[in-house]
Amino acid sequence: MDHTAIIRKVNDIFIDVLDNPDIVLTDETSASDIAEWDSLNHIQLVVAIEKAFKMKFTSKEIQSWKNVGEMCKAINEKMNA
Amino acid sequence: MNFAQLKKSSKKISAGFPVIKVAVLCDFASQFLVQAFQGYGIEHGIKYDVFEADYNQVDRQIMDPTSEFYAFRPQFAVIIRSSEHLLKDFYKIPLEQRAEFAARQLAHTGHLYNTIVSRLDCKVIMNTYPEINDRVFGNFGAKVKSSFIYQIRSLNLSLMDLSRSCKQLFLADFNTTIGHSGISNSFDPKMYIHADMVYNLDILPYLVKDIHDIIQAVNGRFKKCLILDLDNTVWGGIIGDDGMEGIQIGDLGLGKAFTDLQLWAKELKNRGVLLAVCSKNTEAIAKEPFESHPDMVLKLSDIAIFVANWENKVDNIRNIQSILNISFDSMVFVDDNPFEREMVKQAIPDLTVPPLPEDPSEYMPFLKALNLFETASFTEEDLERTAQYQVEAKRNILQQSYDSEEKFLESLQMRSKVRPFDPFIGPRVAQLSQRSNQFNLRTVRYTEEDIARLASSVTHSTISFTLEDIYGNYGLIAFVILQHADPETLFIDSWVMSCRVLKRGMERFTLNKIVEAGKHGNFKQIVGEYIPTPKNGLVKDHYAALGFQPLDNNRWSLQINDYPMEETKMFIQAK
Asked: CA–CA separation, B458 vs B65, rounded Å?
């Protein structure tokens, strides 16, 4: 799965969890760009992504992400690890 | 439904749903729990109006009489405390006091409960603690009184004892529910460390179901009857084809799976759940195993109503319902055949029809996990219920052989013991108040404590009624609570009757006793009120039928002096 496919899949998860069909993610999208992406929903997003990609992130990894691009990069690295 | 679905449900439109006010107080971050709870309610037709206390505010909200919690005036106070915080509290206290930790926690819990119920007329729901083990003592902790596992386990049992003595306290048994999934599958370390959430998203739907089930049962919505199919449900194989020797129960084939289901059904029957059989079979053949198969756990005497014929199951279940006189939403139908299930479910949507797994070995784990038979009370009378309904089924058949209703009623030789509420009858009155939905004019629910209070109230008169006839004793079947509204008016605050005794002249008999009470207190008129609910349409015209005159808004009045007491023919004698 390449970066584009990952971001597409992550986009679907965002739409589902945040219940907003208009969300379009790019690498630069961060929490400040999406109204529903608060700290509470962030927890639910991480759990949903972990489930969908069948992987676990460390607390450190989660805290290090500044935007969607870094999140998807972490997913990519874990898939190929 | 998973958490994400429940969260979406929580935003659905709930206009017209009954509203229940619930305060949720947790010692951890409770946002997800509340979202799931509200979603679960909406999926089941209930709008939970929730006050969510701020993080870790349990003690403050309860101790401060001016808190938002009291201002909200909830019907239910849900107090959820986590094992993780309990462990922290445990570590804080000096070593030499740890053996008394559970006792201290219990005293504190009792204090919280008493504070709430002294200030607020509400039910309290607390949780049992999932038994996490810090492994400081390893398995040896079981032998050390000052270990955490010893104290948390002891606390759980003490909480159960406390809830036995506190009538308004109910326990959501999180320890059982989380034990079912496993603590490691119910806990997300990251969520705990980052957000102080002690339950992961996967377990939340099960925990909120526990809370919802209790609230429903307390409000009188619970299952009273289990209807069982026979072939491949109660035993393996088909009795008509395989015969007595061929059906699988006990040690034969998959017999153990069916025996387990029978054992469970028998336990439910012992608890007061009615068992009925609904099977496509020739009656004599279907009954044979119950009468003479050595491995059958269920006997004919366990079954309140036995229906085996070749009619369709929808009609048969309707027939069972009309004899038992309980609503469809208090019945569960268990059948292995998906086609029959679907047909019944389509025709009777209120009936609970669990989608039984295909493999009989999974029947019991599946059925147990559903927690279908939540209840809010248990008394000795529950044990006798099956026998009472068997008599009722017989009477239904007998009634058809009398040419007039009067002769039939006379033949029953009914007798009723009429008395005000007392400590013996109190718990039964409370139970009838919670169970009765149909013959219930105002559907006010009373706890045992409420009933005890009314019994000694100088502004109320109470009357309870038992009934017995030539077929048996029904115990307490009706009660009325009369409020002295003003010097001239006796107001019927509650008039509740078990539907088992409908159409026997009990209504008229009860009214006579109300009028007697009115005369005794020198009242001039009796006023009754009908508050409609989705379930009490049966008594819509109750007061009109008894000769009351309409006032306004479903209120009715009867002038005591005009009441023709002597002319009404009675088939019931006071004992």
From this structure: 29
Q: How many helices (H) and strands (E) does chain B have?
A: 22, 18
* B472: CATH: 3.40.630.30
Residue pair B433/B444 in contact (Cβ under 8 Å)? The answer is yes
Interface contact A17, partner B, CB < 8 A: yes
Task: Indicate the residue of B4, B194, B195 with minimum beta-carbon distance to A16.
Answer: B4
Instruction: Note if the pTM is more than 0.90.
Output: no
Segment B282-311, tens digit of pLDDT: 899 999 999 999 999 999 999 999 999 988
Distance from the B190 Cα atom to the nearest Cα atom in chain A, whole angstroms: 6
ipTM score: 0.88
CATH code of A61's domain: 1.10.1200.10
A44:B11 CB<8 A: no
User: In chain A, what residues touch B11 (CB-CB under 8 Å)?
Assistant: 19
CB pairs under 8 A between A and B: 31
All residues at 6 or more sequence positions from B427 whose CB lies less than 8 Å from its CB, including other chains: B377, B379, B448, B451
The answer to whether the CB atoms of B195 and A46 lie below 8 A apart is no
Total count of domains within chain B: 3
**Which tens digit of pLDDT belongs to each residue from A29-70?**
998 999 899 888 999 999 999 999 999 998 888 888 889 999
- Tell me, yes or no, whether B188 lies in a domain: yes
The Cα B387–Cα B103 span in angstroms is 43
